Amino acid sequence: MQSAEAKFNKNSLLLALRRYSSTVRDMEQTVLLPSLLRDVPSDEVWDCDAAEESCSDLYGNYLMLKAIRNTVESGLVPLDDHKAKKNMALNKTLDPLLDTDPEALFRFHLRGLFSVMSDLTKKTQSLTDKYMDIIGVAN
After folding, report:
1. How far apart are alpha carbons 43 and 129 in whole angstroms?
2. Within the chain, which residues score under 50 in pLDDT?
3. pLDDT single digits (tens) 61-73
């Protein structure tokens, strides 16, 4: 019997999304008291302005990672005026790319998505490990 992941190529977008979703689910099951993450600085430097202003501590990171997972699973992009303005500025810088070959544009975005999903998965695991250290449980 094949596992759900075995039927996808290791470089499959669906596998990357499932891996991230699964890692966030593990984080939620491990982090029973998210409030313990408040005021705990992150070891990693994240571009919080691009992501969310509240990610200055691990609690903000925890909320952001869950929100991203919810968006990935639901497919619904929340409307937020503040973020929409930032996205419009980003879209203007990407305008020259829109005139390129659609296949090249697809590959560019796909590589970016793989990179982001891999990064988020690693950050989620790192947050889970940090929580385990805070509560004194060996990994």
Report:
1. 12
2. 1, 49-52
3. 999 999 999 999 9
